[in-house]
Amino acid sequence: KIRQYAALFDGSNKDFSDIESAFDDLYHDDFLGTESNGEEVNKETKKQLDEKRLAAGAKVTHVAYTRTDWNKALVKYHLEIDGKSIISKYLVTIKDKKVIEAQYVNGFAGMVKAAWVSDFHLIRRVQSYQHVDKVVFEGYVSPFADLTAAK
Questions:
Q1: Average pLDDT over residues 111-118
Q2: Helix, strand, coil shares of the chain as percentages rounded to 5?
Q3: Reduced to 3 states, what is the DSSP secondary structure of residue 58?
Q4: Is 17 part of any domain?
Q5: I want to staple 16 with a disulfide (CB 3.0 to 4.6 A). Which of 5, 22, 51, 108 is the partner?
């Protein structure tokens, strides 16, 4: 999905409505991420950022996708926009076959930090499911769930 979405950024000016279904198919509703400047983004902010890039005729090339864990991958790509070429790396976390998290990575220390932050957010998501009496998380029943209260 990531390579298919990146291929839509081919350097031609497009309206975001042309690719919105591909965007929604790639990004989870609870998406969170960080950009290279440290700014945190949610799905709506990411949508606005991609909309601006698409309107400016951005081109994405050389997409590399390397699985690092059962639910994580390192994504590296070239972004050409306004005469500049930028190489970006993100550690992405996958949930329900969609990107739920994308942390900008800069060097090995950035990779370690991004993996730690991603694991921390996973723990927080599990805890939030337990606190609202949802007993199933990604197909597993929580050992802390009170199954009698759920009925």
A1: 56
A2: 35, 35, 25
A3: coil
A4: yes
A5: 51
